[in-house]
Amino acid sequence: MGRLVAVLAACLLLSGCSDWPPYAVRLGPTGGVEIVYANCGEEAEKLVRIAFVVVEGDTWDEDEPKIWQLDFVTPTPLSSVETGRTPEGAVETVPWQQPAPDQEVHVEIAYEQRPQATTQMFTLAQLSEGKTLYRGDWVSREEFDARCE
In this predicted structure, what is the pLDDT of residue 18? Predict the structure, then answer.
C-alpha cells in the first residue's frame, strides 16, 4: 500500500498530473464570468457540458438549481467561454441568470475523456475584486496571464 501511495505521489509531483481543474475563472472582457483553459502548452480538453450551479443549503448536491448551462452536441475544445455567450457547437440549455454578489456558485465542467466533472467555487464579489481563481488560489490577472512565460 505504501508503495502505491509513493507511486501516485510521484505521478502528481513529477509528471504534472493534477486533481486541479484545467481552467481558471475570472471576469471576462464584457463583464461576464469567463472560463479560461489554463494548462500552458496543451491542447484544450474537449468539453461536453458547462454548468453553473448555486448552493442553497450548507452542502452541494446534484439537485441544486442551475443558473447557466451549455451542452455540446459534439465534444468541443475551447480556450475560453463567457457567460451569456453561446460558442459554436454548444446549445444553451439553461439561460444565464445573474446570481447575487455573495451567492456561492459552483462551475462544473464535464469532459469527453474524464468520467467525472471538475468543479470550482466562487462568488461574483470575489471575481469583482479583479482576481482569477486558478488551481484553488486567488491570483491577480497579471499573475495568471504570466503563468506560461
Answer: 52
